[in-house]
Amino acid sequence: MKILIIKLGAAGDVVRTTTILHLFKNNVVDWITSKENSILLKDNPYISRILIYDELSETKFENYDLVINLEDNLESAEIVNKINYKELYGCYLSDGKLTYTDSSSNWFDLSLISRFGKKNADELKYLNKFSFQELVFSGLGYKFNSEPYILPNSSDTDLFGDIAISPKAGSRWPMKNWKYFNELSELLKVNGYTVNFLPQRKTMLEHLADVRNHKLLISGDSLPMHFALGSNIRCITFFLCTSANEIFDYGIQTKLVSPHLKEFFYRQDYDEKAVDVFSVDEVLSKIDLK
Fold first, then answer.
1. Which three-class secondary structure state does DSSP give residue 223?
2. How confident is residue 60, by pLDDT bands cut at 50, 70 and 90?
3. Whole-angstrom Cα distance, residue 267 to residue 230?
4. High-pLDDT (> 70) share of the chain, %
5. Is the pTM of this model over 0.90?
6. What pLDDT digit, counting tens, does each position of 80-103 carry?
7. H-helix or E-strand containing 262?
8. Residue 191: is it exposed, middle or buried by C-beta count within 10 angstroms (0-12/13-18/19+)?
């Protein structure tokens, strides 16, 4: 079979989407992504071609047996409508409007283009008990069996320690950022742990290496969390405004889910109440590096 996957971003979403490649190991797989995120697919043994979205005007598309479009935007849907395929999973254009296939409804019913509208979609997302992988695998006709992420080799860095802390999850989600990371770091050091705040890096492969150079990651729902989950690094993760159930824990993740989650669910503004949850002692009680 010839298969096309369309997943441009965000970086963490690209990383977790690599799990579906296990379903198509013996097939020809092309993947359209952004230039920035293409490095995350580098040297992937199950991808035949990495196609850069901004360079698609120079791309010669083949006929595909299956197209999987996990984006929910006009740009990706326009690509789908230009391609010859036998089967489609995901978003496409119909009469000039974004819609999605029945097979992908268990995922896209929870999305910005949900047929139920955003308010009801957010409610469905809040009530959802299944991980991204479980939802997508089932829509493609498979059962998710804990297939792992497929990450690239990372660059060497000199940042090593017991515990890595990633206190920021990007400007889009200010309420992902727990309030007491600095206080936690000081107490961890008092308790004899080597602790590093993850720095900004020139490349995501260096960022990946920093995560891999530690025994435990403490963060919000963010790219470093996905790097840890894909590298078999234990992690403690705060879920203060996004879905904890959507993240598959692979048996290595401790989830700290806010008691106020419903109030702040998928909001992109800022409220002190959202980040002022969980005491430092509560987090310390979850740490065991034995």
1. helix
2. confident
3. 27
4. 100
5. yes
6. 999 999 999 999 999 999 999 999
7. helix 261-264
8. exposed
Max intra-chain CA distance, the chain: 62
When the pLDDT of each residue in the chain is averaged and rounded to a whole number, the result is 96
Whether a cis peptide bond, with omega within 30° of 0, leads into 10 is yes
Q: Say which DSSP state 16 is in.
A: H
Structure tokens at 287: 């740490």
List, for residues 106-140, the tens digit of each pLDDT value. Answer: 999 999 999 999 999 999 999 999 999 999 999 99
Residues counted in the chain: 290
Alpha carbon distance 155, 62 (integer Å): 34
DSSP string, 48-97: SEEEEGGGGGG-----EEEEEE---SHHHHHHHTTS-EEEEEEEEEETTE
Residue 144 clears pLDDT 90, i.e. is over it: yes
What DSSP designation does 236 have? E
| Complete DSSP assignment for 88-135 | EEEEEEETTEEEE-GGGHHHHTTSTT-TT-HHHHHHHHHH--S-HHHH
Percent of the chain with pLDDT over 90: 93
What whole-number distance in Å separates Cα of residue 107 and Cα of residue 101?
10
Determine the distance from the C-alpha atom of residue 287 to the mean position of all C-alpha atoms in its chain, rounded to a whole number: 24
Q: Can you spell out the DSSP letters for 162-219?
A: EEEEE----TT-GGGS-TTHHHHHHHHHHTT--EEEPPP-SSHHHHHHHHHTEEEEEE
Distance from C-alpha of 126 to C-alpha of 243, rounded to nearest angstrom: 7
